[in-house]
Amino acid sequence: MLLSIFKYLMLASTAYLVTGCEQSVAELHSADLPIEYVSVSTELIEDGMVRIRVDVRHAKQDAAVFYFANCAAARYAINGGFSFLVHVISTLDYKQDLKSAEAVYLISAALPPGSKKLDAEVVAINCAENGIPMV
Asked: Whole-angstrom Cα distance, residue 27 to residue 48?
């Protein structure tokens, strides 16, 4: 009886290890794929507030999606003649290998108060240096 329990546990452990190996091979494969900046859309919500939606494929970290949103917001601010952004809120959604973020920013010509303020020119330079499109 004890021997059959031991055999069952060994068989279950082996099945778990094999399944774990298959998953880690799949994860390694997706980790090798280059990040793809799929889409971006901007929408003026009200005066001084903009909503940015972005989609990124093969992002290893959630931060990559938010960086893309910051880059798009910086371009929007610069194109509108504004120098600063304040990140208000953001959400993240996962669909298989696609991560989508929606973020809202307050855009301003003068340095605004708050802890989440961004200098649009500095963000734009960082985006260019890191190969993140600003659309």
From this structure: 41
Q: Name the β-bridge partners of 52.
A: 42, 103
The pTM (predicted TM-score) of the whole model is 0.75
What's the rounded Cα separation, in Å, for the pair 124 and 135?
Answer: 11
**Structural contact between residues 83 and 108, judged by C-beta atoms closer than 8 angstroms:** yes
> What is the amino acid identity at position 106?
L
pLDDT by residue for the chain (135 residues), tens only, comes to 444 443 443 434 333 333 343 443 344 445 578 999 999 999 999 889 999 999 999 999 999 999 999 999 999 999 999 999 999 999 999 998 899 999 999 999 998 887 889 999 999 999 999 999 987
For the CA atoms of 116, 117, 123, 127, the dihedral, rounded to the nearest 10 degrees, stands at 20
